[in-house]
Description:
- The chain is of the alpha+beta class.
- It has one domain (2-103): Alpha-Beta Plaits (2-Layer Sandwich), CATH 3.30.70.120.
- Helices cover 30% and strands 38% of the residues.
- The protein has three helices and four strands; from the N terminus they run βαββαβα.
- The protein has helices at residues 15-27, 67-77, 95-103, and strands at residues 5-12, 33-46, 49-63, 86-89.
- The protein has a four-stranded antiparallel beta sheet with strand order 2-3-1-4.
- The radius of gyration is 14 Å and the shape is elongated.
Amino acid sequence: MADNFHVVLSTCPTPESAERIARCIVEARLAACVNVVPGLRSYYEWQGKIEVSDEFLLVIKSRVELFEALQNMITSQHPYELPEVIAVPISTGFPPYLAWLSANMRTTP
């Protein structure tokens, strides 16, 4: 069962953008749960310069087959020109929690 799920990560520049995107994802049932983690500081190169940004991390629990729809939702709502949208497979998990995930999101894209 666990191989049907993944954790998708994305960062946002403001609490408002993170909360808006998280709510849209859950309302569309593209994920059962989205955690908004404050206090993230990111260091990265952008357009030839080293940047440092305070960000909010979205930790999104979703189905593998919903990735494309989830990616489209994030990129259409996101203020960044190039938003982070990466997925990490869930290899195993507490079976009752995985059942809850399954019950709380759509089954098809």
